[in-house]
Amino acid sequence: MSEKVIMLGNEAFARGAYEAGCKVSAAYPGTPSTEISENLVKYDDVYCEWSPNEKVALEVAIGASLSGVRAMASMKHVGLNVASDPLYTVSYIGVNGGLVVIVADDPGLYSSQNEQDTRAVARAAKIPVLEPSDSNEAKEFVKAAFDISEKYDTPVILRTTTRLSHSQGLVELGERIDLEDKPYIRNAAKNVMMPGNARGRHLVVESREHALIHDSCDFAINKVEYQDSKIGVITSGIPYQYVKEALPEASVLKLGIVNPLPRKLIEEFASKVDQLYIVEELDPIIEEQVKSWGIKAIGKDILTVQGEYSANLLKKAIKGERLDIAPAAQVPGRPPILCPGCPHRSTFTVLNKLRIHAAGDIGCYTLGAVAPLSVIDTTVCMGSSISSLHGMEKAKGKDYIKNWVAVIGDSTFMHTGINSLMNMVYNKGTGTVMILDNSITAMTGHQDHAATGKTLKGEETYAVNLAKLCEAVGVKHVYEVNVFDTTLLEKTVKEAVAMEEIVVIIAKAPCALLDKSPVTKQYRIDSAVCKRCGMCMKPGCPAITKKDDGTIVINDTMCNGCGLCETMCRFGAINTVK
Fold it and tell me: Which residues are paired to 48 by β-bridges?
């Protein structure tokens, strides 16, 4: 009897890649996809790496596929934007060994800057998309994706969402498939996408699309559940679970492949129900195609294009009813805030004091935009802070940015920030760039990168020296400063923004949650000396609170001993304790 275990969706994706005989996996950490690689690296039969960004990760997987092995790249939806250049072209090239790209969308914006729908990107790139609805399907769909990839000579996208990636389900374990590497055969007409070759390959892509539209009607990953013919629902992925809970009596067509759509299967299902509903989170990708075929259906005219769905939402929208659910517990609101001892708080406290604006980036430090720090004014995407600052300087002149800096994390700098800095140097820009070096990719759960000295497997490797890297691209003024030396940091920032040159300040201190950052001291407030001025509370450290009587105290269970509060106190009321 086969073993069954409970797995996260992301853990199941990793297991599916292992069982499918995948040999190479590359990724850049991005919630909600991060745990796929963190689980896949546990299987010694699969080479796994953190790449500096998603474009590189996909290119690594493409290279492995062309050499004849099954390969995979994993990323979140905005990471697919970074990888879109190779994605669109590998659609023309096709594969040798199977090539699967797992992309995690984020309905509800739990950890992202937008709610884009990966299915729309896949339609434009003409790449098939599979969408599982539970953990066991997550595992099995990876295996199906590799089979489809090799049969139809195409990369395959496996779409997941936050709810599937981070929920648990029962998974039936299988054995790993022992596959021989496919022989590499030189074929420039297929693999070299210069215009003359690409024209011919485009015809192949269109032919492949037609074949998939026809063949996918018989794919086992599509399931038809006929019940009451008064209501029929076409759905896929996690929304299938909501449909089954809200409309248990309805007939359901659960699509396992959502691009291209199995047209004949959909037309047959639609003909057998009185009223057809299409339930899909985010954009009306399925709905618009189905309606274009002349099939009447109800979808986004009663359902939202924003956020996650739920059984309650569907029951209210379709049947005008509400589920009997217990009232939600009333819990106090907790705004997002930097952790106690976070080095970014020290940086932003200095910038706030100097009334400096910051062009921001993607990372924990984006929280520098909220009160009480309120320093970051812009955040667009990975690596955009430096480019945005450069654009401001070119638009408004050097004087305009003398009260601006760009802030970017060490991992994000390695991701795409280095390109922006090179552009700044090349185009004779001026401005101050602060690399907030906390020695890890903190926001997604402490993953290593090219400047930390460890691989995904935990092996020691060369650590890129950020200061030397900046100097190598032409920056003449590079300073490394301990962020908790606020006096030196303030002096360095004031001097840097006054210079009409490019200055890089590497603000260094490890993430407070890293194992290599043990709490060696803590602080307390001497109430007899404290003037209750509130200066120690200005940085917004959650370990410091004010009681109803006005007394300010430090919670010793939260204090990480960073010492920032001590530097803020003018009266010597804050002291260390053993």
Answer: 25
Cα angle at 155 between 153 and 160, to 5 degrees?
145
Do β-strands 257-259 and 228-236 pair in parallel, antiparallel, or remain unpaired? Answer: unpaired
Give the three-state DSSP class for 420: helix
Strand partners, 378: 359
By DSSP bridging, strand 47-50 and strand 228-236 are unpaired
Neighbour tally for 249: CB within 10 Å? 8
Measured distance CA(244)–CA(250) in Å, rounded: 8
Q: Is there a cis peptide before residue 128, judged by omega within 30 degrees of 0?
A: no
pLDDT in tens, the chain (578 residues): 679 999 999 999 999 999 999 999 999 999 999 999 999 999 999 999 999 999 999 999 999 999 999 999 999 999 999 999 999 999 999 999 999 999 999 999 888 899 999 999 999 999 999 999 999 999 999 999 999 999 999 999 999 999 999 999 999 999 999 999 999 999 999 999 999 999 999 999 999 999 999 999 999 999 999 999 999 999 999 999 999 999 999 999 999 999 999 999 999 999 999 999 999 999 999 999 999 999 999 999 999 999 999 999 999 999 887 655 666 677 777 778 899 999 999 999 999 999 999 999 999 999 999 999 999 999 999 999 999 999 999 999 999 999 999 999 999 999 999 999 999 999 999 999 999 999 999 889 899 999 999 999 999 999 999 999 999 999 999 999 999 999 999 999 999 999 999 999 999 999 988 865 567 788 999 999 999 999 999 999 999 999 989 899 999 889 989 999 999 999 999 999 86
Is the peptide bond prior to 372 cis by the omega test (within 30 degrees of 0)?
yes
How far is the CA of 343 from the CAs of 28, 349, 479, 482, in angstroms? 23, 10, 17, 9
Locate all alpha helices (DSSP H) within 407-512, ordered by sequence: 410-412, 418-426, 466-472, 486-498
- Cα separations in angstroms, 129 against 42, 72, 155, 194, 449: 27, 14, 9, 26, 29
> What SS3 state is found at 321?
coil
Other Cβ atoms within 10 Å of 481 Cβ, number: 22
- What are 427's two structure tokens? 């185009």
Report residue 329 as tokens.
């517990």
In terms of Cβ atoms closer than 10 Å to its own Cβ (0-12, 13-18, 19+), residue 84 is middle
d(CA 81, CA 9): 23
CA atoms within 13 A on the CB side of 427: 15
Alpha-carbon distance of 201 to 89, in angstroms, equals 10
Separation CA 83–CA 500 (nearest Å): 35
Question: What's the CA gap between 281 and 524, in Å, rounded?
Answer: 50
